[in-house]
Amino acid sequence: MNNDWRLTVADAVRRPLFRDAEVVAGSRGLSRPIRWVHVLEAADTCQFLNGGELILSTGLGFGEAKEKRLAYLSELIRRKAVGLCIELGAYIPHVPDDMLELADHHDFPLIVFHQPVRFVDITLDLHEHLINRQMQALRNLESYSRGLQQLSLQAQGISKLLQHFQAAVGTQVFFYSPEAPPQFVPPLPQTVQSELASLMRSAFPAIPSAEAGNGVLALSDKKRIIYQPVTAMGHLLAYLGLILYEREADEYLLLTLDYTVSALAQVLMRRMFAEEQALATENRLFDDLIANRTLTEEQIRALLGLAGTGKTPVYHTLLMSLRRDGDEHASPLPPHELTGVFRSLLARLGFRPFIRCKGSRFYLLAIGPYGAADARRSLDKAMAEMRRVCRQVMGADTEVLFGVSRPGVRLAEAGRHLAEAEQALAFQHDSPSPYFADLGLFRLLFHVPHDSVLKPFINDYLGALIRYDEEHGTQLVHTLRVYLDSNLSKQETATKLYIHRQTLYHRLEKIEECLPPDYALPHYRLCLEIALRAHEWLNGERPLPPSRPDEQTARPSR
């Protein structure tokens, strides 16, 4: 089946109405496709061309005047017309050498009619031929799309789709995934495959832009690669492309590429979901860790499929929470479908990932062959990409928070490291870093009994301010928090609170009445900082960690 819907200049010259025509210059440009046929006599009307037109002229607008005819021809070339047909006669009895030289220089077909012709017959004939070819191309695309749907449901779907794609476009095609060697249809020599694979690794973006479409990679003056990323839920899965030699990428070819990319994305996503369904043992492991059930090293290794009792590489546990508008339950989120995407992303960064999704939270255990510094850089990349994917899929207003444990070596201690990730997540708003190791003093709050220690501590240092706010509807506690966070800068505090400085002075006077006069001194200020954050945490202004069976005191209701 011929899928080339284009009508080239060479095709037009072979039409019956061109039997008295002769190509006198620019014969190397006869393969140019015609988009439309237009009658144009003067250079000053070339502004209406869009490119791809075959121009018909009697020479009325330029005749034998050298400056006019060269300006006319130059403008046609600049406007990307595909050829010029001139009827020789009273206005221009022959084509001068300067026009022939200019046309040959630009490979611009110059065709002359030695006998009078009816331009209306030519435009009607070529336009009808163009429309018929385009209609046939649309029918071919519809048939191709149906074939894609059938092949995508079969085993060996990717290889079958590539063969179907190659048969449709009639040129070399490839499928490139960052995790596996590229596939070429038809097969290429191994040396050529290795060279192209190396080129793809360096040239194809690891994270395509949100509006990513077709890309072009020039191999030589006549050979180029046309490619398109295969993405799902904002995550790059692979690339599909083709190699063109002395051929431009027309609409049919690009549409065929786009249809095939969509089919491949569906196949790859179904494969990822099937793999997730087969990983039920990971869910059992995380359920045990979340419930704080003690597991031995051997039990965890068995659940994760780690053979033997050899040394396990360093691992991290991560906790990711998705929320909208500050409310974790504000609207339904579809995070479960992202599990396979995150698994692919972490694997691409060198980790062996184990993931569990519960509600709007992800629990991750990432085993990697990295040292501490390298692991942190890779985890930073992973979290940035996961945050980007979540916001692309769920909306830019989605809040994505992380908590990351210290590196672990013994898998039997994974539960303790998960608790560290939980604490890092709980204090994410107070710490610029998601890492437990960077929490500093806040690491202690997680383990302080609430009713017997933490609440009395808060009351001793903030009780008077809290009661004043409750009785008078003021915001002295929040003002104090911002004031201390601003390092006692009144100007910065007023700016952050969006109030006049005089209003701030009044609030600070009230705060000084409720607190000891030395509240800004280092020893007392440190206690205030801790009390303020503990108060916010216990009152639900920050996420609370889940209750554990061995905790002696009940957590306050939220």
Automatic annotation (TrEMBL):
Purine catabolism PurC-like domain boundaries: 12-130
UniProt-listed InterPro entries: CdaR-like_regulators, PucR_C-HTH_dom, PucR_C-HTH_sf, PucR_dom
Residue intervals of the PucR C-terminal helix-turn-helix domain: 476-534
Protein's recorded name: PucR family transcriptional regulator
Taxonomic lineage: Bacteria, Bacillati, Bacillota, Bacilli, Bacillales
